[in-house]
User: Fold Tripartite tricarboxylate transporter substrate binding protein from Saccharopolyspora endophytica.
Amino acid sequence: MLRPTHTVAVLAVAGLAAAGCAQAPSAAQNYPSSTVRIITPFAAGGISDTTARVASQCLEKDLGGTFIVENKDGGGGAVGMTEVAQAKPDGSTLSVVSVSTAALVPLVTEGAKYEGASFEPISGVTLAPSVLVVKNDSPHRTAQDLLAAAKSENGGFTVAMPGSRGIFSLTTNAITNAGGPKFTNVPFESNDKSVAAVLGGNSDSAYLSTSPNLLEQLRSGQLRALATGAPQRLDFLPDVPTFAELGFRDLPDSTVNVSLVAPRGLDDKIEQRLADAMQKCLKDPHTADVLGKEFVRQDNPGPAVMREEFATSEASWRKAVGR
Assistant:
């Protein structure tokens, strides 16, 4: 039998242990306890890379710790996103990536070892609607002019675009399937290279995402916008009709929707800390200065909103590719 003095000692030790457990910070409270990698599945310089670097600065500022951007390009994004999907869901590996790279690429890429459900969406960052452009001295002054010219060329009309089997080719193919002209899609590595093909006279047009650089080229008169894949006319391109206005409704989603994601299974509290930090980031004037005020989201695109957008977009793409 324990003596009273021993009982008191045991109870005291137990009380200290309990107090220690109560005061021990959780993994979420300690986050980040180590360096966090933000993988972007493309080479430096693109929209995902630029957005990732802004996000890393914001997260360091708000959460402390070290957030580093790693470029892991290859396979149209599949190489980098496979690494993210297979990482431990402890918050030490994140990605800033378009929803299409996370959810569409595995639908059209043989051997992709992930799917849209492999990720936990944390926060939307930017939305870049698609736009069809021509060189300013092109004879095609309107979208109707371009569509008529493309119809007469019976597949010879070229459209430069980033990527060979992504959201832009899905849209041009869907236009053809809906009774529009047949196009020759010409894939390039980026927006900038697609634009260069048009400006150099090597492509009749380009279908790509809007961006600060592209808006400057439109405003300076180098390019002319003829149509957009957005659901409605864009505030920053009010004179440009949508494809729906031109008679092509129910096209696949072609907006570049860039978001912060983590491997599936991330702790809810870590997810919320990251989401809260990103909400502050989206309201920071520096973010708009770097990414373009037209594109930075201000609609509180947290985890619930982004899960809905992932699901809606993926359903659109599955329908388009017959999956």
